[in-house]
Amino acid sequence: MVKISASNYKWDLAVAVPISNPYFRHKNRFSAQIDSIAASRITLTSARTESVSMDLNYAHEFLAVDDLLTIKSATTGTVNSTYTSSITTSNLAVGVDDDLTATFAKGDTVVGYGSGIPGGWYLNGGDIQSTGVTFTSDTGAFDDFCLKLYIPAASFPAKTLYIRQDLSTTHYIADLHYRLGFKYKYLYSSNAYVQAPPFGVGLYTQSDSMQNTVKDGSDFVDVSSWTNASYTMYLPTAMATAFNLRFILIDSVSCQDNCYIYLDEVYLEHIYNTASQKTIYGNVASSSGNDTTVGYYEIDSYPEEGSVKWEKITSFSEVDLIDGGRERYDSMGWGERNVKYELSARFVNVPTSVWNKLESFLRIQQNGNKLNLHPYINELPSVLTGYLYITGVDYTYWDLNYVSFDFKFREA
Asked: From CA 194, how far away is CA 131, in angstroms rounded?
């Protein structure tokens, strides 16, 4: 169904830094091997997920109860599935619904989608059992999914924990300003007016970092409704071999109150700079401001009233099965939004300077970049990540300094 709206806000375009699972909707794809097997229980080894390249040490880093495990025998090729019934917090042992000892053995392959932590993310160090921190899904800012963290005061450790995602260094430019944005809620579990864990965000390379505090945990004020937050950050590292973002549970041994933190709609993009800072092309900017040279532009015109339309484009995730077949995968639990949006509008007789800047974004796309669009329409996500299309360019207005065109943005 196509919806139609008048536009009351100027839209923002920015070069996107890709983030995996920014709306916390899909599970964590993993692979492992059986290390030992007993009736209704298996212990895994060599466990890895899409979120982190290193082997994991604890089952709860990626699995939760009722996750589906698909197992393939290394000797017979037999494939079967079972569900997890219990998850340990001290090793890689997993309780399962079925006795698999007659069919499978040490060395057999186990794959699946775990819902212990959402796909693309991981807790730095993985030592969740010593913290009491738990991850669950809850109703999000836009749809039914977000990340919910429960943080118990009594067992909060004397160290800093990071909910982390590693980013591609190909999207890192030294001294370029980035905007890290998200929506959050922060709820105290009591009204005792005592300290709760501070909460912040940061960007990191192998040698530099920049952090901002979102809540310091000492003002005793809930953030009970979804709240937008964004921070401008830059890093001086000349050659980044590592680049990551972190939601930080800050070291605080004096925490006395439990709290809940909700996160949703995370994005990272290029943003405003000044004349002394770098452009997306690596050179020093000749002037300050929001412009395509820094990968950010507030479109300095409005779409034609009544021309703004959007529609849902539904697609289903399909996975290859071990036996060579294919099936639609329902990853509900963390949930995967298989509905994407396509937004279209007509711009009529706008200055050619607007068109020239949008054309610059088309060139940026051709270099392999995705874009973020902030449409400021309540019925749409706050950020759409995808590709821009411009068609129907018309210079027939009597003043050739003005142009009309069709604008389309499609989520990728």
From this structure: 19
